[in-house]
Amino acid sequence: MADRNPAPDTPELRERWGAFEFTESYRERADKAIARYPEGRQRSAVMPLLDLAQRQVGEETNTQGWLPLPVIEYVADYLDMPVIRVLEVASFYFMYNMKPVGKYHVQVCGTTPCMLRGSDGLFETCKKRGMSKGHVSDDGLWTLTEVECMGNCATAPMVQINDDNYEDLTPERLDAILDELAAGKQPKTGTQIEGKRTSEPEGGPTTLKDMVGANHDYRGEW
Questions:
Q1: Cβ(136)–Cβ(100) under 8 Å?
Q2: DSSP 23
Q3: Is 3 within 8 Å of 99 (Cβ atoms)?
Q4: Which long-range contacts (CB under 8 A, 24 or more apart) does 17-23 make?
């Protein structure tokens, strides 16, 4: 699992991120998020603001983004919150990265349905490309994390890379996705089985076939 401790608070970290503040476009998005909440409840926007801060860090570093401690302090100040409260949120949810990550954050689900459908082979595929759990690869492209269930059990095994899900994977299919990303391309997201659209069975529907073309009423047949 990902390390949930913040990166060490060093002078180098302060020098790089101590002056962090939202750009104009990110400030507009942050203020819009805050405005969704009633007066006196602005602190409820802590999660979207942390996400925005991480995305801005990602743009500045050409990575998926992470949350240095000075950036967390900036969000706390922006919302007039104790820093520890913001840190508690950031360190609890896996959508926030507490350490630097690569350009592509490869999150492989290792929970039972994905494991039974071959996630061990996906980890091996990542290992062969120089990835190791919790580390940035030497070329700066990849960070590998093993995660718990992300809700795609019907299309297991699956991997989330940055904001996109890739499902119905095999080692060969994952290799092809990683090749495209490394080449600066955007692979097809979702299921990787040709002809499938979402989580329907392979080979097409096997029951309720009349529902494919219309909202068929089966009640009289039951």
A1: yes
A2: -
A3: yes
A4: 17/57, 17/68, 17/69, 17/70, 17/71, 18/70, 20/53, 20/57, 20/68, 20/70, 20/71, 20/74, 21/74, 22/52, 22/53, 22/56, 22/78, 23/56
Instruction: Kindly report, residue by residue over 170-201, the tens digit of the pLDDT.
Output: 999 999 999 999 999 999 999 999 988 888 87
Nearest to 190 by CA among 158, 157, 167: 167
Cis peptide before 157 (omega within 30 of 0): yes
- ∠ at Cα 74 (73, 79), nearest 5°? 100
Question: Under a CB-based contact definition with an 8 Å cutoff, are residues 186 and 139 in contact?
Answer: no
Packing angle, helices 46-61 and 24-34, rounded to 10: 170
Tell me the per-residue pLDDT of 19-31, one tens digit each, with 9 for 90 and over. 999 999 999 999 9
| Dihedral, 172, 177, 178, 180 alpha carbons, nearest 10 | 130
Q: How far apart are the first and last CA of the chain?
A: 48
Structure tokens belonging to residue 137: 């690869």
Read off the pLDDT of residues 70-108 as tens digits, 9 standing for 90 and up: 999 999 999 999 999 999 999 999 999 999 999 999 999
